[in-house]
Design goal:
The complex is a heterotrimer of chains A (422), B (188) and C (578). By secondary structure, chain A is mainly α. Chain A is built from 14 helices and 2 strands; from the N terminus they run αααββααααααααααα. In chain A, strands 1-2 form a two-stranded antiparallel ribbon. In chain A, β1 and β2 form a beta hairpin. In chain A, α1 runs parallel beside α12 and α13 packs antiparallel against α14. The longest helix of chain A is centred in the N-terminal third of the chain and has 39 residues. Chain B is α+β, with helices and mostly antiparallel strands and 188 residues long. Chain B has 2 domains: 52 residues, no CATH class; 108 residues, Alpha-Beta Plaits (2-Layer Sandwich), CATH 3.30.70.3270. Chain B is 22% helix and 13% strand. Chain B has a 3-stranded antiparallel β-sheet. Chain C folds into 3 domains: 126 residues, Ubiquitin-like (UB roll); 180 residues, no CATH class; 242 residues, Rossmann fold, CATH 3.40.50. In chain C, β20, α14 and β21 form a beta-alpha-beta unit. The longest helix of chain C has 14 residues. Classes of the chains: A mainly alpha (422), B alpha+beta (188), C alpha+beta (578). Chains in contact: A-B, B-C. Chains B and C meet through α3 and β2 of B and loops of C.
Chain lengths: 422, 188, 578
């Protein structure tokens, strides 16, 4: 009996969190993408599709800002002809879309959506699997998505998808390193790999990027303030690398329309294309969730209010976790909006710039950041002399690196184009 | 050809980080977004804009009142004031049509017709509106001033067959046009 | 270099030219050598200098009545007695230009003559002539069928003055006149060049056309009580430089600028007139003769020219048919060919006969012979088809390729076995027939004879009694749908070119024959010709491209074409340029 209830709870969490929370976020972010880009560009965007009340004999349709548009889009994609070109390698061609969606959805399972709720004395954590290796699991699974894109590019047997797939692979491998290195300082700071614990820590002692409450002897304010420096660097590198990992706009070279038609999904149509589309947006949702969890306090409201919210109860039903769930989703949507704003503001990088940014700047910066964070984290245990020596060594290494970079930078060549040769 | 060698301006250290420029970009895009949502977009007052951006809300608001004189809509055949077909099916429009949208089958006017002098008229005249690009070459090339681009712009249909305008439909859109054509003149 | 004066004295250009029967003519400032007695217009044409003209036609007499070919002419001034002519350093005398123009079509060149086809005088004259010609012209180009190939349009763009100064009423003349069964006359468009009148008189030998009235009222008419019903009447529409004479068959069908031209040959009689097939898409719109001075000059008979409508008619067979329970059913090519092979396999070679056709190309006849040899079939024949020569172009042999069949099959008479086959069918000795493109009822077979046969397979173009009687019908290609070669009655190897794709599922006959033999090779008709040329000594060293557009004489048959004889006689008499 007990095991059945456990199973039911797990099933409810899987279905509820994956299919009722994360998946609906995909069409919602598509809708936001379209509306937000429209207002940025002085347009209107989709504002028509709603509930056609006139069909039922009423006077006016109920548009509601076109919020039903994503459903119409989905329906359209569903009803389109599912065309498989003859020249593709069928098995891989069919497998590829699934391979992009599944990793994005699987990573959902370690994201803590809220503080635990209590129903009838039974505590339910709002996380599908409370793994003790959360971030590692996320990296391990989410980088599998590159197989989907690479296979799509290769199995299409067509040049543009192929170039898109190759680009995607190179890009993902390059940024995976910066991504992994950049969160090491964060993990050093928390001393924990369990995402639920990380969020709980932030709720108790202040968010990583907003450490203004919950000071105590173990977590002095000055130490948290000092750690803001590596935290901000890590945040910057992590966020930008997530952009690259999700193939979002300044780094959407695998599918850049101006060069590659549609990139790796050129040969896809109907639901198979929709799956790439969904996978991309799901990756964006997961990326945002990760950033929010690691840097911006996850489900935490902050300012010490979390314990009180967690304690709210009607009878034996402690529903505070649901409020936290709402807070988490609000933060998530805000970050998705930031994603969108970036897409419609920053122009696309050139491929060599992208590679240079990943390998030459982010990799080094993340590496130095690891030592900087280690120094700050370890400082209380060492004497001042050791700390200062460490700081000087770090500075020297950083200076040397910057010098090497400057020297190795390609000289601006004299203009030798077609015009120059004249 | 004069050659101007342009040198890239060297970037200051601050500029090399690009972050400042990116944030400036955010401010610009956000300002546009906020202006749009407050209904203060540039161009919102022009034409019959909806006030939501510069966009016209189509089925309710229409171009009709703002159609310029030179607007090129659907091509159509015209008759003269006596209801005679101006077209003699010389097929020059069929020849010139860049997307090959026009198909004409010439026919002879029977000798008992009062205007048998003209001898020739189109038996079939089809314009495939799925192909037509509204370039106006047919109007330009027509030696009998029989084909004009009218202001009709809502050319829609549920099937491909519906989108092919036959002779009847073309005369229906075209209507009558008064003007000098003297091919009916016995002594010209 | 030696002294120029002494060289000039020794070898004057006129002497050098005279040795070869030539004269020196200065054409637009360049000295040229042309044969003595050449018309000025032809001399210009030899050196790619175009002189616009309407009435002049090299195959007709030159009345010089259109005045379009006016050029400026000059001759050396006659020296005073005792005075030596003045020569320049190259030995040419200086030219004294005449103040008035002459017509280039009726004057012959002379030694040291000068011709100017440009310059103010000539251009003024042309502008004037064009303006006069257009005075009464109705300018109904959008309606007129000649638009696009109209000399009046071309020359008024090239040499006209752009607008008319004529303010009076145009003369009203009859329009849309029914002067013959195949020709329509529009007198308003006529520019009185008289080409049609001369053609009917001199070539067709049926002078029914003429002018009535005078001056600006001059009208082209047909002789009272007569019609322009000669079998050569459509040639007048070809040579008419304007849209006055148009073909009823082609009238208002299609504008010429849409049409694609394919050079090929006519297959209605042994003459094998050279033709151009005018097509748009997969439809033939008209056929016109193509100049070949060894075959048909510039002309062709109406009956042959109009005989192409069957190609896309309702009677055309477009898919393979296999008879089952007395009814024909459409079948795939694979099934139909297998049915023919199975049908023929049921009978021994002695019980089988092949009736081929002298309307087939050499390549097809060659493959037919190979098929017969592979199956060991002895009885193989063509069907003779003869009529009466019309004394002009139509040959007595109405098969286009009898000579070819003779050469390819190495037989003096390729049709000599026909009577034997007919007897064999009647006696029941021959039980299976493979008929290639012939209608057996024309060859003396009756419906009863056909009913006696156990198995008939035929390639056919049109539905007919033979197709009806056949157990398997394979749709072949018409003459305008295939490539290949034929030899005409005079022994000239000529080439057919594909103008349109075979209708529906029908196929090139040589491919059908190859597949009937169960072979995969050859893939190209060029290879068929190659293997044929290896067996036929007359074709040695030739291939389809070497035949060329005008053909190659490969054998001497002694047959002549009356029209060409007539033309040569008139040329020898100096009546035409030829």
């Amino acid at each position: 009996m007990e095991i059945l209830i456990q199973l039911a709870i797990i099933l409810a969490k899987v279905i509820g969190l994956t299919f009722l929370v994360v998946l609906p976020l995909v069409p919602i972010s598509v809708y936001f993408e379209r509306r937000f880009s429209a207002v940025i560009q002085d347009r209107v965007g989709p504002n028509r599709v709603g509930i056609p009340l006139t069909l039922l004999g009423m006077k006016k349709d109920f548009h509601f800002f076109g919020l039903v548009q994503p459903m119409a889009d989905g329906l359209k994609l569903f009803l389109k002809e599912d065309f498989t070109p003859v020249h593709v390698r069928k098995a891989f061609y069919w497998l590829a879309p699934a391979l992009t969606v599944i990793p994005a959805l699987v990573t959902v399972c370690v994201v803590p959506f809220g503080s635990p709720i209590e129903i009838g004395g039974r505590e339910v954590e709002l996380v599908i699997a409370n793994l003790d290796v959360g971030p590692l699991f996320v990296f391990a699974v989410s980088s599998l998505a590159v197989y989907g894109i690479t296979l799509a590019g290769w199995s299409s047997n067509s040049k543009y998808p192929f170039v898109g797939g190759v680009r995607s692979t190179a890009q993902m491998i390059s940024y995976e390193i910066a991504l992994g290195l950049s969160i090491i300082p964060v993990l050093l700071y928390y001393g924990d790999l369990n995402l639920s614990n990380i969020v709980q820590h932030q709720a108790d002692h202040g968010w990583l990027l907003l450490p203004f409450w919950g000071h105590d002897a173990e977590n002095p304010f000055i130490h948290k303030l000092l750690f803001l420096i590596p935290a901000l660097i890590a945040f910057l590198i992590f966020t930008i690398s997530i952009f690259a990992e999700t193939n979002r706009m300044p780094f959407d070279l695998p599918e850049c329309e101006t060069e590659l038609v549609g990139g790796y999904h050129t040969e896809y149509s109907s639901m198979k294309f929709a799956m790439f589309f969904m996978g991309e947006y799901a990756a964006m949702v997961i990326g945002s969730a990760l950033i929010v969890t690691l840097f911006l306090g996850g489900w935490s409201v902050g300012f010490g209010a979390d314990a009180w919210i967690s304690g709210l109860a009607i009878g034996s039903f402690k529903f505070g976790g649901l409020i936290h769930l709402g807070v988490f989703l609000a933060k998530l949507v805000a970050f998705i909006l930031f994603f969108i704003l970036v897409r419609w503001t920053v122009p696309r990088f050139r491929y060599d710039q992208l590679m240079r940014l990943g390998w030459v700047i982010f990799f080094e910066a993340a590496l130095i950041n690891v030592f900087l964070a280690a120094l700050i984290v370890a400082a209380p245990q060492f004497t001042a002399a050791i700390t200062i020596t460490g700081g000087i060594v770090l500075l020297a290494v950083t200076g040397a690196l910057i010098w090497v970079l400057r020297v190795s930078e390609p000289k601006t060549l004299p203009n030798q184009g077609l015009l120059g040769s004249n | 050809m004069p050659v101007i060698k342009v040198k890239r301006p060297p970037l200051a250290t601050g500029e090399k980080f690009y972050l400042g420029a990116v944030f400036k970009g955010f401010i610009i895009t956000l300002r546009h977004a906020i202006d749009s949502m407050r209904g203060k977009t540039r161009g919102a007052k022009d034409l019959a804009s909806s006030g939501l951006g510069a966009t016209m809300q189509f089925p309710e608001q229409r171009w009709d009142d703002h159609m310029p004189e030179y607007y090129r809509g659907a091509p159509a055949l015209v008759t003269d004031e006596q209801g005679r077909e101006r077209c003699v099916s010389c097929q020059l429009c069929e020849f010139i049509c860049p997307p090959k949208a026009i198909k004409i089958e010439p026919g002879e006017i029977p000798s008992d017709d009062p205007w048998a002098k003209v001898e020739k008229r189109p038996k079939e005249f089809d314009i495939d509106m799925t192909r037509c690009i509204y370039c106006g070459m047919c109007e330009e090339v027509c030696p009998e001033q029989a084909i004009y681009l009218r202001k009709d712009y809502l050319i829609t249909g549920g099937t491909r067959a519906e989108m092919i305008h036959d002779k009847k439909k073309l005369y229906e859109i075209g209507g009558v046009r008064v003007g000098l054509v003297n091919k009916w003149n016995e002594l010209k | 270099m030696s002294d120029p004066a002494s060289t000039a004295e020794a070898r004057l250009p006129k002497d050098i030219a005279a040795e070869k029967g030539m004269v020196n003519v200065q054409i637009d400032g360049v000295w040229r050598q042309v044969p003595k007695g050449t018309r000025m217009i032809e001399a210009c044409r030899m050196f790619a200098v175009e002189v616009p003209h309407y009435c002049y036609h090299p195959k007709l007499s030159s009345p010089g009545n259109c005045r379009m070919c006016l050029v400026q002419m000059g001759m050396p001034p006659r020296p005073a007695p005792g005075q030596e002519p003045v020569r320049d350093e190259n030995g040419y005398e200086s030219i004294g230009w005449m103040p008035r123009p002459v017509i280039a079509c009726a004057n012959t060149v002379g030694e040291n003559m000068g011709i100017r086809t440009t310059g103010e005088l000539v251009e003024k004259c042309r502008e004037g002539v064009m303006e006069f010609l257009l005075i009464n012209h109705p300018l109904d180009c959008p309606i007129c069928d000649q638009a696009g190939e109209c000399r009046l349009q071309e020359h008024s763009v090239g040499h006209g003055r752009g607008q008319s100064r004529f303010v009076d009423m145009k003369v009203k003349k009859p329009k849309n006149v029914d002067i013959g069964p195949r020709i329509r006359l529009d007198d308003e468009r006529c520019i009185m060049c008289s080409r049609c009148i001369r053609f009917m008189d001199e070539v067709a030998g049926d002078p029914v056309l003429g002018f009535t009235q005078r001056g600006t009222y001059t009208t082209l008419t047909v002789h009272p009580g007569r019609k322009l019903d000669s079998n050569y009447s459509l040639n007048t529409a070809d040579i008419c430089p304007v849209g006055a004479l148009t073909s009823n068959d082609f009238r208002f069908q299609m504008r010429v600028w849409f049409l694609k031209e394919t050079k090929t040959i006519d297959v209605n009689c042994g003459t094998g007139a050279n033709i151009v097939v005018w097509t748009r898409g997969n439809k033939i719109h008209r056929i016109t003769p193509r100049q070949n001075d060894e075959v048909n000059s510039c002309w062709m008979p109406d009956s042959h020219r109009l005989n192409f409508h069957y190609i896309d008619s309702d009677h055309r067979l477009t898919e393979p048919l296999v008879k089952k329970d007395g009814r024909h059913h459409a079948a795939s090519w694979t099934d139909a060919l297998a049915a023919v092979r199975a049908g023929l396999d049921r009978f021994s070679a002695a019980e089988t006969a092949i009736i081929a056709s002298a309307r087939m190309t050499n390549e097809e006849l060659h493959l037919t012979m190979e098929l017969a040899e592979a199956r060991g079939i002895e009885e193989i024949t063509t069907v003779p088809r003869s009529g009466e020569s019309d004394g002009i172009l139509i040959s007595a042999d109405r098969n286009p390729n009898t000579t070819g069949a003779r050469l390819v099959w190495r037989r003096e008479d390729p049709s000599f076995r026909l009577a034997g086959i007919l007897d064999g069918v009647r006696s029941g000795k021959i039980k299976a027939l493979l008929v290639l493109g012939e209608d057996l009822t024309e060859a003396g077979f009756t419906a009863d004879d056909l009913a006696k046969l156990d198995f008939i397979a035929s390639t056919q173009l049109l539905a007919g009694p033979t197709a009806e009687a056949s157990d398997v019908v394979l749709p072949g290609a018409a003459f305008a749908e295939k490539r290949g070669s034929m030899v005409n009655v005079t022994g000239r190897l000529q080439r057919l070119n594909r103008a349109v794709e075979p209708q529906g599922q029908s196929r090139d006959d040589w491919e059908i024959l190859r597949d009937l033999a169960g072979r995969k090779e050859p893939h190209l008709i060029e290879d068929v010709f190659k293997s044929m040329a290896a067996k036929v000594p007359e074709f040695e060293g030739l291939n389809l491209s070497k035949i060329g557009d005008l053909g190659k004489a490969v054998v001497e048959t002694g047959v002549t074409i009356p029209l060409l004889e007539n033309e040569r006689a008139r040329k020898a008499a100096g009546q035409i340029v030829g």
